[in-house]
Amino acid sequence: MSENKRRQFRLIGHPLGQSISPQIHERLMKLSGVDGEYKLFEIEPAELEKLAGYLRTLSGFNVTIPYKRDIVPYLQSVSPRAQRCGAVNTVKCENGEMHGYNTDSIGFLRSLSDAGIELRGKVLLCGAGGVARMMACEVLERGCSLVIATRRLEGALSAKRDLEKIFSGADIEARELGSIDSGFDLILNGTPAGMYPHEDDCPIDPAVAGKSAAVFDTIYNPVETVLVKAAKAAGARAAGGLSMLVWQAAAAQEIWNGTHFKAEDIKALTDDMKELLYSRYGGRR
Known about the structure:
By secondary structure, the chain is of the alpha/beta class. The protein has helices spanning about 20-30, 50-55, 80-85, 105-115, 130-140, 155-165, 205-210, 225-235, 240-255, 265-280, and strands at about 5-15, 35-40, 60-65, 75-80, 90-95, 95-100, 120-125, 145-150, 170-175, 185-190, 215, 235-240.
């Protein structure tokens, strides 16, 4: 098949410098026999509207920070799951139209299952952006109580108001990150605090992580953040976001190409991406 007939996929966001999504999707397409290419496509915030026409010519694209909510007005349809959490991370393009989905939730739930982490009890959610709101919806759907914490209280209050419209009567509290102490069954991080190159950062006092039963951090670089390491050191179950990244990519490929993947293939791919991150970023483990 000639180059211009290959299926074209992109990741849009800003910035994208450390992304390993092309390596993940190229491997997934090879596994499923799809002739396509996946490239990074960094978009400045002011350029999204101007480039919407180009995006429609693709076979599909993923969406990351800061466009998971901003992309919605340009879509012809949004899946119920994406509507519920107010964020789109996967778009399928067909006949000049764009249709939005959220596969982050699939990746999130599969990753928790792989790590033996349960969604139960009192949950602390750090952050209120697109990925954080997705996790909030999964938490509340299972009847857990939720504390949303952000650097400035208004961000948490805004998310609380939005979620209460969907989950009437839910137990939701808004706090500032600096006021968090202890008393949680599960801590979820949906902020960039601790992401390379600021890997010494942590969204909360690391000591709090050691007082919880489990921790899940959506950050995948470094493979283990300060938050995850603190939880593991205290004997809590803890996992980073690499498995989530790979599982959500597999779910996106299923939407775009109708393909399916074996759990052992996803596990092998996740292990290979872990080694890639270690080698690319100086072997930090």
